[in-house]
Amino acid sequence: MPLPLTIIKVGGAVVEDEARLNELLDGFCAISGRKVLVHGGGRRATAIASRLGIESTMVGGRRVTDRYMLEVVTMVYGGLVNKNIVAQLQARGTDALGLTGADIDVIRSHKRPVKDVDYGFVGDVERADGDKLTTLIEAGITPVMAPLTHDGHGMLLNTNADTIAAETAKALAKRYDVTLVYCFEKKGVLANPDDEDSVIPLITRADFARLVADGTVAGGMLPKLENAFNAISAGVSRVNITLATAIDGRHGTVIVP
Ligand SMILES: Nc1ncnc2c1ncn2[C@@H]1O[C@H](COP(=O)(O)OP(=O)(O)O)[C@@H](O)[C@H]1O
Ligand SMILES: CC(=O)N[C@@H](CCC(=O)OP(=O)(O)O)C(=O)O
Fold first, then answer.
1. Contact indicator for 31, 200 with CB cutoff of 8 Å
2. ipTM exceeding the 0.95 mark
């Protein structure tokens, strides 16, 4: 029986809010056994870019990234957000190591080809290195992954954090019994986005298609669900979308293969 491993992905609204982030990090540290934290920080990047006079454009929940925005996200995700989370985990006695995809070549990608939309410097993942992550994890280290990847030719690329979480989960599912938890500021996937308590307990692919078609699911929930289904179809044992203060797997929305 493979050993259990938990991957928690924390979204931008929680990263942005010190009290909520602290609560999430307390919860993360309380999880026993092997674990990985993946963070976003999209809202922080939008705010800092705006202060620098750079406007943000999102298409289908993903950021269009020109060379100036790439500089901003590199600083914000790889520096500000990642290093603060690592320091907070160290303060709680968790031996965390912050990684972008370029560090130890852990996530390789290529620049997304231009189709209907030119996303600019956005990376589509080719592979995540489960072996190197396993080496770190088995040495007692907790990886903290930022939403940046690289192309192997010196170019950093912006990659949605939900994708980083799914690709990391898939790579680690070859060795571990992986639970992937997407946590954010809502209680789960909502049947009515205006009603915070309208959590859909369980979603199949057919439900997802219907929820997109009727507009119930939109924006940042699109990459989250696309990645959630990708993960559950590729060997990840459990995928859950839930509130950042309810990461024990007993709340929120469960993704069904
Ligand atoms: N049906 C839905 N249920 C919950 N959230 C939804 C739904 N449809 C769209 N959303 C939006 O998706 C957002 C989550 O996406 P995003 O902001 O990218 O989160 P994260 O930073 O956690 O990845 C929610 O804050 C909400 O506004
Ligand atoms: C290409 C792309 O969309 N990259 C994302 C990466 C950060 C992210 O996903 O952050 P959240 O989890 O907070 O949404 C972005 O720049 O917004």
1. no
2. yes
